[in-house]
Write a structure and sequence with these properties.
alpha+beta; disordered C terminus; single chain; Lipovitellin-phosvitin complex, beta-sheet shell regions; transmembrane helix; transmembrane
Length: about 350
């Protein structure tokens, strides 16, 4: 039985060690990918001065991002994002209104379609735009950072400018007790189309707090100013994620961190279990082999002229050699003669 158990444990050891190798070489790449079932709502609040009303007023914004599972594939995820910004003077405005709203609360409503690499978060090459149904070519990061974020500058897409801008690493900070990487984008007085068909200048100071392991944005604030060429301000916006959105983001980050942390420990756990199983199995197998396969030497059986076993033959019983090894001992021939 010990021999069988030993063989089973050595087989288990081989399986566990192979699992450890796969966990190192394959599992991280398979797990660290943007899911294909994304359907997220991000809400922001703040204040804005907007023409023609002028003056500062409360505003709110909604960004709804959903992945297109039919167009996405193993390496690329396709997103559709709808963003709505409107004034919220009484704190009871809906998530969005259309341009027929009698209270004229709509500031802007936009849609965007883009595709990113599921691991790096980078926009796909423009040659694949038609494949994924994308009208405008995008570059750089768009809605998240890569997995395992580095402390460096990343190119980040700016939809107003239609190109990437630098997202600069500015250190580590805690958001609701969760450690994040802080990145800042600073754009000042760049020529841009500030509204449909209207040219002017655009400035934006955007700060993002990123979960280092998943690259997800945990919090974001932005001060944005759009001016006409004559210097008149069209939009002066200061807003950021709501407390509810931040709390939900941190909750998701903690859950994902636990899953990815387990994946990171899997090679070590399975490797140690494999070695332990192998050692225990080997010693059980070796012990059973020694106990059952070795015995004391046996003296070959012999028979005399009468066909009877003579003394010293191994017939399964203990016998006494009455003649011994002494040369003075009487021989069988002498006995017969007597």
């Amino acid at each position: 039985m010990r021999r069988i158990i030993g063989l089973v444990l050595m087989g288990l050891a081989g399986f566990l060690l192979m699992t450890a190798l796969l966990a190192v070489a394959y599992v991280p790449g398979a797990v660290k990918k943007t899911p294909l079932d994304t359907d997220s709502y991000t809400r922001l609040t703040g204040t804005a001065a907007v023409l023609p009303a002028g003056g500062s007023a409360p505003v709110k914004a909604l960004s709804h991002t959903v992945s297109d599972g039919q167009k996405s594939d193993g390496g690329v995820v396709v997103f559709d994002t709808f963003t709505c910004l409107l004034t919220d003077p009484n704190g009871d405005s809906p998530d969005c209104v259309d341009d027929t709203d009698p209270d004229k609360r709509l500031v802007s409503a936009t849609t965007d379609r883009f595709a990113t690499d599921r691991r790096t978060g980078m926009a796909i090459a423009s040659k694949d735009d038609s494949k994924y149904g994308i009208e405008q070519t995008h570059e750089g990061l768009i809605n998240k950072f890569p997995f395992d974020v580095e402390k460096k500058t990343y190119p980040f897409w700016d939809g107003i400018l239609g190109r990437t801008v630098d997202a600069t690493f500015e250190g580590e900070e805690e958001v609701n007790g969760w450690n994040t990487y802080k990145f800042v984008i600073d754009v000042q007085d760049e020529p841009a189309e500030i509204s449909s068909g209207i040219q002017g200048t655009y400035s934006s100071l955007k700060t993002m707090w990123i979960d280092p392991r998943t690259g997800a944005i945990q919090n974001q604030t932005e001060q944005q100013v759009r001016k006409l060429d004559n210097g008149q301000t069209v939009l002066d916006l200061d807003f950021g994620f709501t407390d509810e959105t931040i709390a939900a983001n941190i909750k998701d980050a903690k859950a994902n961190d636990s899953k990815l942390g387990l994946v990171g420990k899997l090679p070590l756990i399975t490797g140690l279990l494999g070695l332990l199983s192998g050692l225990i199995g080997f010693f059980l197998w070796r012990g059973a082999r020694n106990a059952g396969g070795e015995s004391l030497p046996r003296t070959p059986a012999g028979r005399n002229d009468d066909g009877n076993a003579y003394a010293g033959a191994d017939n399964g019983t203990n016998t006494l050699d009455v003649f011994g090894d002494n040369a003075e001992t009487t021989s069988r021939a002498d006995i017969h003669r007597r």
